[in-house]
Request: fold
Amino acid sequence: QVQLVESGGGLVQPGGSLTLSCAASGSLAEYYGIAWFRRAAGKEREGVSCIQSSDHDTYDAESVRGRFSISIDNAKNNVYLEMKNLKPEDPGVYYCAYTAVMPILRWSWNDVSEYQVWGQGTQVTVSG
Reply:
């Protein structure tokens, strides 16, 4: 099995920064994808960004483009989400998700059904 553990959430003011980490372990596929999703209160889960371990190709949501950056440390199987200039619409529980179905496609990368394993989430709160 694969396990994912998120960390790095917290409370920040608008315009602040946070970096989230997703530690993947267990029976990882040779090549896999990791995505970050978020769920705001009263809203459905939405895709934020994703990355492929093989070639580091990425996708992201238009709402975070230029502010959030996803990266991977292949040796550690850790995926990071660097978030800058956080906005009032960014808070929520951030989840990382794993898929062994490759490649990730531009029209389905943010579909929750494409992912087989989910972490428990880390809370991001943006005041104001």
User: Anything to note?
Assistant: The two ends are 40 Å apart (CA to CA).
